[in-house]
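pls ignore typos typing on phone
fe (iii) ion + seq
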Amino acid sequence: MARFTLPRDIYYGRGTLEVLETIKGKRAIVVVGGGSMKRFGFLDKVVDHLKKAGMEVRLFENVEPDPSVETVMRGAEAMREFQPDWIVAMGGGSPIDAAKAMWAFYEYPETTFEDLITPFNFPELRQKAHFLAIPSTSGTATEVTAFSVITDYAKGIKYPLADFNITPDIAIVDPELAETMPQKLTAHTGMDALTHAIEAYVSTMNSPFTDPLALKAIQMVLEYLPASYDGDKNAREQMHYAQCLAGMAFSNALLGIVHSMAHKTGAAFSTGHIPHGCANAIYLPYVIQYNAKNPEAQARYAAIARSVGLEGKTDAELTQALCDKIDEFNVKLNIPKTLRDFGIDEKEFNEKIASISELAVGDACTGSNPRPITPAEMERLFHCVYYGEKVNF
Ligand code: FE
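k done
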């Protein structure tokens, strides 16, 4: 049995925060990050609107980037004390992801991360609270997805949580919040959204329900990301919607090895963190070349190329045109072409890449990739990404 799950309501457009005044409940806890939502006045607006809805409001602030197990436990504790019937998570991916996990531990204090990491094995949520998400970046789409990533720093592992129970009830997609994104973040989150849509479209889990969302998202990113990067307000708005459409697609169709590779290299090198969207943008054209050796996957890439007006007589030519387009975007957005250009040390790369490749193959996103991959093939693929070589195996 296949399933397609989205939030019950998605409110979108400028000034949509106002809809909070119509939410029915007694107590709302607002989960938020490190300060930009407060600085730009959005946190105050949210609190005011919730109070006008007649709710008692409490804040849980300062959720860190890549939220920790400890933060989740503290948040769940705060919820058990306050007993909210609404959890309102606002900001980038991190506070919303953290709030999703807090929600599970609020309703089921006896559960453990070990229980929750089995995909689609959550206990039944909504016994105590409903969940509303307000994104401030245009990329992760966690406001509409069934996913959350929590980091256990003591054990050095990430817990990817996946279950339709944590798909929010309501998403408020207000582009005013995304207008404050710095340029680099706009580039990285935009390419993350493009990767979500392309991986969802070629995923082994693709479906007639997810395909139109993925294709529309790809068209919109290609149309609006460059101007959004340059600060155009209308383009920013369209990107905020495009990333949400991409999220609706990949929450149901899952992803592929671009994400497997990004997950396992993000924090792997001593030269510094590789931002998630930047890693995806670098890996995407190489992975397309790898996956396109599967004729069915190649036909799907060709369909994407055709749908955005790229030219080519054969599926191979169309797939190449798509890769060229992504390369062109990466140049425009100041994203390097190789891991060497990103600044990863060659010696460290060669020392670590075998174990990273093993981990990447074991990532939760590998299962839905359209072409299987072994650790040895993954290592060859990373080699191509490091040196900027063509993938011809
Ligand atoms: Fe992503």
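Residues 192, 196, 259, 276 surround fe (iii) ion (CB under 6 Å). The first strand starts at residue 9 and ends at 12. more later
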